[in-house]
Write a structure and sequence with these properties.
165 residues, alpha/beta, Macrophage Migration Inhibitory Factor, 4-stranded mixed beta sheet, two-stranded antiparallel ribbon, 4 helices, 24% strand, elongated
Length: 165
């Protein structure tokens, strides 16, 4: 094997196994498995849903109050962003390992995704609502971060298409 051939070989992980690929053609099936695994990992990291969606990550255990919290967050999101509640998605991940400001005192990290409804007025209203709801679990508003992302319609999928068509 020439030095150039050795240099053209690459390694990557697919489903926890090391797979060797020679040159550009290589093992297409292994490359496909790798891309699928990478996409799954990326999706798990991003944890974003549709229009609109709210994801709340907190180190507080919500117990049997989790579902009522999610329903209240859904209503608040629809009202604050002016969207029909039938499209709102809410995910609450409680009991997570989170350190905020060097302390593991109750805190929350939230993400809000929507199309066209992300603006100062709506963001402030939803921030106030989410902080009030989280306050019922002992989470102070000063220990809540919320990111707001305004996605273009072509960047959100729904029902086998995107919102752009």
């Amino acid at each position: 094997m020439t030095l150039a051939m050795k240099a053209s070989m690459s390694r990557f992980t697919a489903n926890g196994r090391e797979v060797r690929r020679k040159g550009r053609r290589g093992d297409a099936d292994a490359r496909s498995r790798m891309r699928s695994t990478e996409c799954d990992e990326w999706r798990a990291k991003r944890l974003t849903a549709g229009d609109p969606s709210v994801i709340v990550r907190t180190n507080v255990k919500m117990g049997d109050r989790k579902r009522p919290f999610m329903l209240a967050a859904s209503r608040a999101t629809a009202e604050c962003l002016g969207k029909p509640e039938e499209y709102v998605a809410v995910m609450a991940l409680d009991g997570m390992d989170i350190v905020f400001g060097g302390s593991d005192a109750p805190c929350a990290l939230c993400s809000v995704v929507s199309m066209g409804s992300i603006n100062l007025k709506n963001n402030k209203a939803l921030s106030a609502e989410l902080c009030e709801l989280l306050g019922e679990f002992g989470v102070a508003g000063t220990r809540v971060y919320i990111t707001f992302d305004d996605y273009a319609p072509e960047n959100l999928g729904y029902d086998s298409a995107t919102f752009a068509g």
